[in-house]
Structure formats: C-alpha cells, structure tokens
C-alpha cells in the first residue's frame, strides 16, 4: 500500500501575524492534512489559520552552500541605519 | 573537508550552542542515537495512552472524564510531534512503527505496569508525568533542532497533565479513609517505577556520556532522579501521604534527599519484556495497527480517486 504523504504545517497564531512553520504530519490528502493539523497543532487555540503543503514541494537551500549563499549580505553594513553617524541635535530620525 | 574535520566542525557547533538541523552534516552515531532516543520517546507517548485509556469509561465524573480524554489526546499529539522529529533524520514512519510492533524498539518501562484503581490515574499524572517533565525540560535544550522544538511544545502541554494528576491525589487524600488508602496504595506502587524512569545509574548507562558530549542530554540520569526526589517529597507531604522508602532522609550536607536503592533486577526484567503488562501493551498496539489498516488504505484510495477526478476535469476544461 502507498503510505500517506508527509505535509508541512504552517499556522497563523492570530490575525495580523505571519503563518509560521510548526511541524509536519502525515495525511492522505490536503483536506485531511488540515483536519489533522487542527487536532495536532491547535488544541489550545494556537491558531486562526492553517496552511499545509506537501513536504516534497518544498525546495530548501543547501546548508553546505549557506556561506556563499548569504555572503553577499555580510559586507553591506551600510544597509543598516546604525551605519550612519548623525549629529546629536538630530532627533526623531 | 575530511571526515575528521567534519566531526570537529560538528562538535564545535554543538559546543557553541548552535543547533544541528536535519540537513546539516552529523556523525552517523549521533543520527542513530537520536533516532533511537526520539523514537523510543515517541513510542512511550503512544503506549502511554493505554494504561490511562483503561479508565476513560470508568472516570468518576464527567469532569474527570473530559480531562482524561484531553490528556490522552495530548499524548497522541506528543507521539506525533516526536515521530515527525525522528523522520527528519531519514527514517520513515512505517519503519518506526514496525520497530515498535516487532519489539525491536523500546518504550518507557513505566507503561508496563497496570492501572488497578482510579488513584493510579492520579499517581501517573503526578509522578510519571512529573518525572517525564524533569527529563523533557532538559531536552528542550537538546542540540538537535527538531527534537528541541518538539520538546518545547510538549513541555507547554505537560504541566496540565501533572496538575490534573496531583488534583486527583489531593481529592482522594482529603476523602474518606478508603479513598486515602487508595491514594497511598497508588503511591506505593508507582513510586519506585517512577524513579526507574530516569534510567540506569550513571555508571551503568551505556549512552549517557556520549549524549552529554553531544548535548542531546545535559543532565545525567542520577542528577535528574535526584532533582525529582527533591521536589516530590514536599508534594507528598502536602498530600499527607508517605513515600514508600524507609531510607528517604534529608541530607543536610549534600543539600539533597538520600533515598533507598532501586530494585535494578526489577528494572532490567521489565526492560527485557517481563513486566506485568509488556505483552498486553504490545498486543494492543499491534491490534490497533492491524484493525486500522483498512482505514489507512481507504483514505489513500479516496485521495487518489479525488486527484484523478480533478485531473480529468481540468483536462476536459482545457479541451473545451
């Protein structure tokens, strides 16, 4: 028999916030994945909305390549506000 | 990088408290240890539902019944979080279940003891979940990310389990003579098996030292056991119940309670499968798995049929 596929579960804890990955579970189809996610991950009002996506559809970056992948951001301190010196008199900026 | 360099890089990360995630390089033995430990933990949650399930239909009030149902449902949830964490290490759910049902994988021996009276449900929540919490709080800081995250979730839910158990004990301890006797009897039977839950003594624990180095564990079996005894003694005093250990005594010098020697023969005997309920528990799991087979198959067949139908309809729509 074919086994139930694996799904990743994302929950929005309250309206206005992002959906956040909370874990995974097995289900025969998307509808069942939502129902199971409700029972497994929101038994104590942890969510107002659920996303499920079959795990095989997720493409992840390779941890072995994370150095070169994230390298470009490392030497660009000028992207942060703290890079800039302002005179003390300047408030509210 | 050579294998040796990989190992060093890995250990450096662990030492620097950087979590290890599923796709990161890890030593084979680390992976194997985690699969063994996490799956054993998952199986314990699942088998742990059985002794308590025995009392759902016999709970003394609707309130108690609702609470017990919710607790048992949590245990199922905890099993699922942990199976998922184990699966991130490259083992499938089917293999994990198969290892439990074939007896290859172990689960916590505590669940091989029977729940003879309602007070046992109180004692399990108070002592068994209490002991589990000691261990699980430590594991929220485990070096493997998915395991640690599952533990955070579990710990948040576990505290209700212990309190509901303690409340049952409180009610009985303040009740009639017969109820008090029942509470004391449950404590007598569950105390020692609860201490055994922390596993063999440090000197006899095969995996402990390596697990500490890898920061899977951060406290030794004996440390956790001592911590449990130290906090539980006072809780028993509040209940007015006596812990069944004549050697239990506050040691001023150590700042801890001394306690008597655990019956390790009993411990190993239950681990080896000769506890009062080992066979019954495993048989129940096997039966549930076999009885549920048609449901799993039917759900899959239904999902496939729906998918087929959707494909056909979209093909038709395109053709039109």
Give a summary of the structure in a few sentences.
The complex is a heterodimer of chains A (93) and B (320). Chain A is an alpha+beta fold and 93 residues long. Chain A contains two helices and three strands; from the N terminus they run ββαβα.
Account of the 3D structure:
The complex is a heterodimer of chains A (93) and B (320). Chain A is 23% helix and 23% strand. Chain A is α+β, with helices and mostly antiparallel strands. A 3-stranded antiparallel sheet of chain A has the order 2-1-3, with helices on one face. The model of chain A has no long low-confidence stretch (mean pLDDT 94). Chain B is globular. Classes of the chains: A alpha+beta (93), B mainly alpha (320). The interface between A and B is medium-sized, with 20 and 29 residues.
What keyword list fits this structure?
heterodimer; A: 93 residues; alpha+beta; Ubiquitin-like (UB roll); B: 320 residues; mainly alpha; two-stranded antiparallel sheet; globular
- The SS-based structural class of chain B is mainly alpha
The proportion of strand residues of chain B reads: under 5%
The profile of the biggest β sheet of chain B is: 2 strands, antiparallel
Low-confidence regions of chain B: none
Count of helical regions of chain B? 13
Strands of the widest sheet of chain A, in order across it, are 2-1-3
Order of helices and strands of chain B: HHHHHHHHHHEEHHH
Just name the CATH architecture of chain A. Roll
Q: Give the count of structural domains of chain A.
A: 1
CATH topology of chain A: Ubiquitin-like (UB roll)
Strand and helix layout:
The complex is a heterodimer of chains A (93) and B (320).
Chain A lengths: L5 E7 L6 E8 L3 H12 L7 E6 L11 H9 L19
Antiparallel strand pairs in A: 1-2, 1-3
Chain B lengths: L2 H13 L12 H20 L1 H5 L8 H26 L5 H9 L16 H22 L5 H29 L3 H20 L11 H6 L7 H19 L9 E3 L4 E3 L5 H11 L3 H14 L1 H27 L1
Antiparallel strand pairs in B: 1-2
Helix pairs in contact in B: 2-4, 4-7, 6-7, 6-8, 6-10
């Amino acid at each position: 028999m074919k086994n139930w596929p694996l799904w990743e579960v994302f929950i929005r804890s309250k309206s206005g916030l992002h959906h956040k990955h909370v874990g995974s579970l097995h289900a025969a189809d998307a509808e069942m994945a939502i129902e199971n996610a409700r029972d497994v991950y929101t038994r104590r009002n942890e969510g107002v909305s659920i996303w499920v996506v079959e795990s095989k559809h997720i493409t992840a970056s390779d941890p072995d390549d994370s150095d070169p992948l994230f390298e470009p951001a490392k030497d660009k301190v000028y992207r942060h506000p703290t890079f800039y010196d302002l005179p003390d008199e300047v408030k509210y900026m | 990088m050579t294998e040796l360099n990989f190992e060093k890089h890995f250990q450096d990360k662990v030492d620097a408290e950087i979590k290890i995630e599923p796709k990161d390089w890890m030593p084979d033995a680390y992976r194997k240890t985690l699969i063994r430990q996490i799956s054993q933990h998952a199986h314990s949650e699942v088998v742990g539902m059985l002794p308590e399930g025995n009392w759902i239909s016999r709970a003394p009030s609707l309130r108690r019944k609702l609470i017990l149902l919710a607790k048992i449902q949590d245990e199922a949830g905890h099993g699922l979080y942990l199976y998922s964490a184990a699966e991130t290490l490259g083992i499938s759910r089917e293999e994990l279940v198969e290892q439990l049902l074939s007896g290859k994988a172990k689960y916590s021996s505590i669940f091989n003891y029977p729940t003879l009276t309602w007070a046992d449900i109180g004692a399990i929540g108070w002592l068994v979940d209490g002991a589990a919490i000691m261990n699980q709080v430590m594991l929220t800081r485990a070096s493997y990310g998915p395991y640690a995250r599952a533990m955070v979730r579990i710990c948040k839910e576990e505290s209700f389990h212990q309190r509901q158990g303690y409340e049952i004990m409180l009610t009985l301890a303040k009740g009639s003579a017969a109820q008090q006797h029942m509470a004391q009897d449950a404590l007598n039977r569950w105390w020692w098996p609860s201490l055994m839950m922390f596993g063999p003594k440090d000197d006899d624990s095969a995996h402990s030292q390596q697990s500490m180095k890898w920061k899977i564990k951060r406290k030794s079996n004996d440390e956790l056991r001592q911590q449990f005894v130290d906090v539980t003694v006072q809780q028993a005093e509040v209940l007015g119940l006596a812990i069944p250990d004549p050697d239990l005594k506050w040691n001023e010098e150590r700042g801890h309670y001394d306690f008597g020697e655990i019956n390790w023969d009993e411990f190993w005997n239950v681990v080896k499968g000769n506890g009062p309920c080992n066979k019954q528990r495993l048989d129940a799991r096997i039966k549930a798995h076999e009885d549920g087979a048609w449901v799993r198959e039917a759900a899959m067949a239904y999902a496939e049929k729906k998918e087929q139908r959707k494909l056909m309809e979209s093909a038709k729509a395109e053709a039109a």
